Amino acid sequence: MASPLTFAVPKGRILDEALPLMARAGVVPEAGFHDKANRALSFACEGTDMRLIRVRAFDVATFVAHGAAQLGIVGSDVVEEFAYPDLYAPVDLAIGHCRLSVAEPAGQSANPARVSHLRVASKYPSLTRRHFERLGIQAEVVKLNGAMELAPGLGLASRIVDLVSTGQTLKDNGLVESSRILDVSARLIVNRAALKTDPRVAALVEAFRALVAERQAA
Prior knowledge:
Layout: E1 6-10, H1 13-24, E2 42-44, E3 51-55, H2 57-65, E4 71-75, H3 76-82, E5 87-92, E6 98-105, E7 117-122, H4 125-134, E8 138-143, H5 150-153, E9 159-164, H6 168-172, E10 175-184, E11 186-191, H7 192-197, H8 199-217
Parallel strand pairs: 1-3, 1-4, 7-8, 7-9
Antiparallel strand pairs: 2-3, 4-11, 5-11, 6-9, 6-10
């Protein structure tokens, strides 16, 4: 008997948008999943032996890449940051749209084309370094997991790299978006080995792909 599939999903905004699509693909979490007071991290799925785990977005990629989960949903920012060789992102779900951008204090005079070194606060060290390397700049990345917008005002970094949706949070903290690194959307991700060896994984990939195509054609 085949072992249950594990499907990893991120906490937060992407999950809210993904749940209706997941339901149409047959991934329907048990009622306890929707209980805000429920601290459980693993949930059964209705009508199947699949289980759903709810973890931090960065951890979704790690669980899937290492085979602890066979599938998951996560932003393309996470996929690009880790670039795990065992991770495959076959379907752009066309939800969770935002962008990964560089931001700096409004009116900041330093021209990045004229500097060779910058200190940048971000939870995306790899993407940040690669972006500035392309500009011929060495980026010293200060790793933060939140409250990035505070870093420039407190002298921790001259710039930040973070996800931007409306830009209002940047504005509220005296920052402006100075360049865009990556357009982001949510992706269905799978473990490469699981995709090759478990037909259930391939079937779910095709189900999600068909649903996205159907929605885009409507």
